[in-house]
């Protein structure tokens, strides 16, 4: 019987962490049960998302497949796009990389700092059936939704945006004043969101700064969510709470966001980190670390 161990990289973007498989030459096929087991932080490798780098059918540098730690597949992840973009850019030596996803084609670009990557996250969508919502709202800057007593709701009137996945943003004065670990699951699974939703608490500090805390669908509380940061920045500018260029402060660190006026695209810039390389045994799902992080190229296939 051949070697049943497969190599991986452990990476993170502002603490939003990933297990990365290079499946461009050999497919990596894992069941939802295996994904959940690998994603467990006590007994597995532990991750927020599992990323499989596959051949692209559209001519891009690679296709990025994304699974949450609950085993579900999702279409977009901004922090993962930066991480995979960094790997592909370092591998090719070029200034950018085209990454195909289920949410569309995304372009990652290097900056003057090797670990810092900019990603063109594309154009946000605001129509109720594009987010999607279960019922029609003409203005998704503030939809009719609340949690708690009718006369004194805990949270209410969120802004909704699709950034490759659905987001609901609640504007608050203090993001720590709410138990998002308790409220998040209720809102994520609210009937108004047929595909569930990422839930953010956002506090506008100034015209250029926003503080954000995120409950990510299929994951839970996370130190950083790139698409949520994009959604918050866009929703804030759309409602004239801020300008179109802001720093979004997440528990894991800051992301720089710009919602461009010329083409409507959202540009996201932030740090990435390669934590270590490892080998996973497919039979036992045990793993070992084989090398420290921050190697110059994507070498998990070798």
Could you walk me through the main structural features you see in this protein, from its secondary elements to its overall organization?
It is an enzyme of class 5 (isomerase). The protein is mainly β and 302 residues long. The protein has an 18-stranded mixed β-sheet that branches. A two-stranded antiparallel ribbon has the order 9-10. Strand 17 and strand 18 form a beta hairpin. The chain is globular, with a radius of gyration of 19 Å.
Shape call: globular
Count of distinct structural domains? 2
**Architecture of the largest domain, according to CATH?**
Roll
Strand-residue proportion: 35-45%
Order of helices and strands: EEHEEEHEEEEEEEHEEEHEEEEE
Mean pLDDT: 94
Could you please say which CATH topology of the largest domain applies here? Diaminopimelate Epimerase, Chain A, domain 1
* Number of separate strands: 20
Which structural class should the secondary elements be placed in?
mainly beta
**What is the overall number of helices?**
4
Oligomer: single chain
Alpha carbon gyration radius: 19 Å
In the predicted model, the low-confidence regions spanning at least 5 consecutive residues are none
Distance between the termini: 20 Å
Pfam family, one: DAP_epimerase
GO biological process, one term: lysine biosynthetic process via diaminopimelate
Family: Belongs to the diaminopimelate epimerase family.
Binding site for substrate: 16, 49, 68, 78-79, 165, 198, 216-217, 226-227
């Amino acid at each position: 019987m051949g070697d049943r161990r497969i190599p991986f990289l452990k990476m993170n973007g502002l603490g939003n962490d990933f297990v990365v498989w290079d499946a461009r030459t050999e497919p990596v096929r894992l069941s939802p049960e295996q994904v959940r087991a690998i994603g467990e932080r006590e007994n597995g490798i532990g991750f927020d998302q599992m990323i499989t780098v596959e051949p692209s059918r559209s001519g891009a540098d690679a296709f990025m497949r994304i699974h949450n730690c609950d085993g579900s597949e999702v279409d977009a992840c901004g922090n993962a796009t930066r991480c995979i973009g960094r790997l592909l850019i370092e591998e090719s030596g070029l200034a950018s990389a085209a990454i195909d996803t289920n949410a569309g084609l995304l372009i990652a670009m290097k900056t003057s700092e090797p670990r810092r990557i900019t990603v063109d996250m594309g154009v946000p969508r605001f129509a109720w059936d594009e987010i999607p919502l279960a019922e029609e709202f003409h203005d998704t800057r503030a939809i009719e939704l609340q949690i708690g007593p009718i006369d004194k709701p805990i949270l209410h009137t969120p802004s909704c945006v699709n950034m490759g996945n659905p987001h609901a943003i609640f504007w608050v004065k203090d993001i720590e004043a709410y138990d998002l670990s308790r409220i998040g699951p209720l809102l994520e699974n609210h009937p108004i969101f047929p595909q569930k939703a990422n839930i953010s608490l956002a506090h506008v500090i100034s015209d250029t700064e926003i503080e954000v805390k995120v409950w990510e669908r299929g994951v839970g509380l996370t130190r950083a969510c790139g698409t949520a940061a994009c959604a918050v920045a866009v929703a804030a500018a759309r409602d004239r709470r801020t300008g179109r260029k802001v720093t979004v402060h997440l528990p894991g660190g800051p992301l720089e966001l710009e919602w461009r006026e010329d083409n409507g695209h959202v540009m996201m810039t932030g740090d990435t980190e390669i934590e270590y390389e490892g080998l996973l045994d497919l039979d036992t799902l045990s793993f070992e670390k084989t090398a420290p992080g921050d190697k110059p190229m994507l070498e998990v296939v070798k």
